Amino acid sequence: MGKNKNLKNKKSKFFKIILRYIVLFIIIGSLVYFVNYRIKNTEKIVYIAPKPTVKIEKPHIDTIEKKVTFPTYIEAKDMIAVIPFVQGTITEYNVKVGKFIEKDEKVAQIDPTPFKQQLLQAKAAFEAYEKTYKRIEQLYIKNATSAQNYDEIKAKYDSAKAQLELAKVQLGYASVKAPVSGTILLAPQAQGNVASQTNPLAVIADLDSQIVNIQVPEKYYDTFTKNKDKIEIELSRPQSEASTYAHLLSIDPYIQPESKVFIVKAELDGDLTYFRPGMYTLATITYEKIQNVYVLDQEAKKLDGSLYYYDESDKKAHYLDAKFFKSKEENNNIFKIPDKFRDYTFIVEGQNTVFDTQKVNVLINN
Q1: CATH pick for 68-77+205-290 out of 1.10.10.10, 2.60.40.10, 2.40.30.170, 3.40.50.300
Q2: Which end of the chain is more exposed for a tag (fewer CB within 10 A), N or C?
Q3: What whole-number distance in Å separates Cα of residue 235 and Cα of residue 181?
Q4: 2.30.30, 2.40.420, 2.40.50, 2.10.50: which CATH number matches 53-64+292-362?
Q5: How confident is the model at residue 208 (pLDDT cuts 50, 70, 90)?
Q6: Nearest partner of 89 among 202, 187, 10, 201, judged by Cα
Q7: Is the pLDDT of residue 342 over 60?
Q8: How confident is the model at residue 145 (pLDDT cuts 50, 70, 90)?
Q9: Pairing mode of beta strands 232-236, 106-110
């Protein structure tokens, strides 16, 4: 009896397990059928990318200016240092920085007292020798004295006369005058100082004649010398609206070995009210102009130099290789379009998001 009972229990457990698997298979099968049904009866969704929007432009006629900009400083064309020719205490000092002074106007007065004394001494010595010389000269004419005596007194007379003239000149030098008309740039002395030939009393410059010495890298030497007659120079002050032009004076015929630069010298033209010696300025040198050519902005190019043009007939963008636009006739802003492409319509914005033969939307400017 016990064995029969155990056998019945085992059969019961087996049927229960079989039943569980049957139920599980039915559930899984139902889920698979449902998913399959949904997939078959669901409408497929296809993503269509929108056409890129671009801006187009035709080449226009312009002038390509090749130019470079270098920093430089304004200088006076001629700066005259007023040097005293005699030494002494400054008793008058009539100069002030920025003041305009006329030629021969007094700059300073050096104490004339010692020079007046020298003049009196020289005058007394000259008058004494003059009397003796005239007396000996009369005797010499009458053969009453020797030629040696005459020559000796004449030499002393001439020396005394020269000393008298020198004393007069030195007294005149005590009044220091401006050698030229101009504006006082430096006034480094003061009344009471001792004037000497090693220290100028003033520095004068003609502010209507100002120059720049522009340091230009060696790589531009051949280009600048070849286009010397075409060079135009514009000067501007940073953080200021002041600007003016300058005309070329010279291009140095050599390269400085230490800095590898050469000097382009130019003189300022026009209104120089806001330009003064010592000012920092930017010199923009235009060395070549290519006039009346069809151009596009440099921004129309892709990074590799290629372009896209727009064809109205198919509404598509078309690729043009960079090899068609390799030309030296360009600057940082614009470049020349070859004649065979001058009637094309180019994509100037959005060209980095399109590919060859892609349809595009054109942005219409209001």
Answers
A1: 2.40.30.170
A2: C
A3: 26
A4: 2.40.420
A5: confident
A6: 201
A7: yes
A8: confident
A9: unpaired
pLDDT at 366: 46
CA–CA dist 224, 339 (Å, integer): 28
- Judged against a pLDDT cut of 90, whether residue 21 lies above it is answered with no
In angstroms, rounded to a whole number, what is the distance separating the alpha carbons of residues 85 and 116? 16
Closest CA to 341 of 365, 315, 323: 323
What predicted TM-score, i.e. pTM, was given to this entire model?
0.64
Q: For the chain, how many residues are written? A: 366
Give the whole-angstrom CA distance, residue 7 versus residue 1.
Answer: 10
Tokens of 295: 């151009």
> Could you confirm whether domain 80-204 is CATH 2.40.50.100?
yes
The residue type at 199: N
Lowest mean pLDDT among 28-32, 48-52, 233-237, 266-270: 28-32
Tokens 């930017």 label which residue? 282
